[in-house]
Every structure is written in structure tokens, then in C-alpha cells.
Specification:
- The chain is mainly β and 194 residues long.
- Helix content is 0%, strand content 46%.
- The chain has strands at residues 38-43, 49-54, 58-63, 68-74, 79-84, 90-95, 99-104, 110-115, 120-125, 131-136, 140-145, 151-156, 161-166, 172-177, 182-186.
- A four-stranded antiparallel sheet has the order 1-2-3-4, with no helix packed on it. It has a four-stranded antiparallel sheet with strand order 5-6-7-8, with no helix packed on it.
- Strand 6 and strand 7 form a beta hairpin.
Length: 194
């Protein structure tokens, strides 16, 4: 019998169905076993996929219809943050390998790798899928253009950036972190909104 919180090798258990009465015991419809801690999860915006990244140094993508693993992207270090583009064409991962890596979900190819000087803790795609941003131990919020692969904005912080998000109109980006601040930036002017 499997003990609670027992780690099972990923190749031995890919999916599991959990049944139970709501309110009486944990209830779930699907489970995917990983080799180590999971730090970040995300659903694709078309709801076809769910992905996880963590201490197993992998970004793993699962198909929700077939309940099967469809992609596995290996990293040199732990994966701290993952995100799908809003057009569901790309998935990205950032982590202790000091990289923000973008992959094409159709071809399974690496699209680009943006290098950072320190660990990446949070990533996000803009809602128009034109930009991707990363924040981390380098005390910066960095925004990249996905077409040109160029850095288009860099906002410095007093400490680590641990969380970022774009507004739905892709006009603003916000960052929060160890400086105990939530800061919102206007991407059209590079200034903080007043």
C-alpha cells in the first residue's frame, strides 16, 4: 500500500484517478506523479494542457484529454515558474539555471533562451502574446519582445522580484517581491502610473 506523501518514480505512475465524496476526503479527478517537489503549475489558455515545473529540473506538459504526458523539457536546475502564452502556442520556464526559456508547443522546439545573472522566480506572458517578462534574484523586472527576441524594458527593484503579472490589455505590468512593494509600470511610457 502506498504511504501518504511517498515519492514514486514518474515512469511508474503517469496518471491516477482519485475518487471520494466531496466534504469527506480529498477529491480530485486526475493526478500526475513527479520525482520531486512541484514549484509551479499552469493551465494552457485553451484548456488542452496542464504543466508543472519543479525540483526535478523538468518542465512537464500533460494533455488533459488523453491524460498523458506529451512534452518534457529538461533544465540544468530547478524550475521555479512556468507560464503558457495566451494564444497557447508557447510555454516558458524560469528557474535556478538563471534562464527564461521559451518552447513552441507544436514543434516541441526551444524558441529562445533569455539569460539572467541570477535565478528567475516569476515569469508571465502578455495577454496579446507579444511579450514575456521575468523577475528574480537579480532585482529586476525584465520584459522581452517575443518576435525580435530583444529586451524592451528593464525595471530595477530594491530586492528580489518574486511575482509579476501583465494587465489584460497588455498596457501595464506589475511586480512584487522582497522589497515589500507592489509596483505597476506603464509599458507605453516605461514610467510608474501615478
Amino acid at each position: 500500500m502506498k504511504k501518504e506523501n511517498q515519492i514514486v518514480p514518474a515512469e511508474s505512475v503517469k496518471t491516477a484517478t482519485v475518487e471520494g465524496e466531496v466534504g469527506k476526503e480529498p477529491f480530485g479527478i486526475l493526478g500526475f506523479q513527479h520525482e520531486n517537489c512541484v514549484f509551479s503549475i499552469a493551465f494552457s489558455h485553451d484548456s488542452k494542457y496542464i504543466a508543472a515545473g519543479g525540483d526535478d529540473k523538468k518542465l512537464t506538459v500533460y494533455d488533459l484529454t488523453s491524460k498523458a504526458q506529451v512534452h518534457e523539457f529538461k533544465h540544468e536546475e530547478s524550475v521555479n515558474s512556468i507560464a503558457f502564452s495566451h494564444d497557447s502556442k508557447y510555454i516558458a520556464a524560469g528557474g535556478y539555471d538563471k534562464k527564461l526559456t521559451v518552447y513552441d508547443l507544436t514543434s516541441k522546439a526551444q524558441v529562445h533562451e533569455f539569460k539572467h545573472k541570477r535565478s528567475v522566480h516569476s515569469i508571465a506572458f502578455s495577454h496579446d502574446s507579444k511579450y514575456i517578462a521575468a523577475g528574480g534574484d537579480d532585482k529586476k523586472l525584465t520584459v522581452y519582445d517575443l518576435t525580435s527576441k530583444a529586451q524592451v524594458h528593464e525595471f530595477k527593484h530594491e530586492s528580489w522580484v518574486s511575482s509579476i503579472a501583465f494587465s489584460h490589455d497588455s498596457k501595464y505590468i506589475a511586480a512584487g517581491g522582497y522589497d515589500k512593494k507592489l509596483t505597476v509600470y506603464d509599458l507605453t511610457s516605461k514610467a510608474q502610473p501615478s
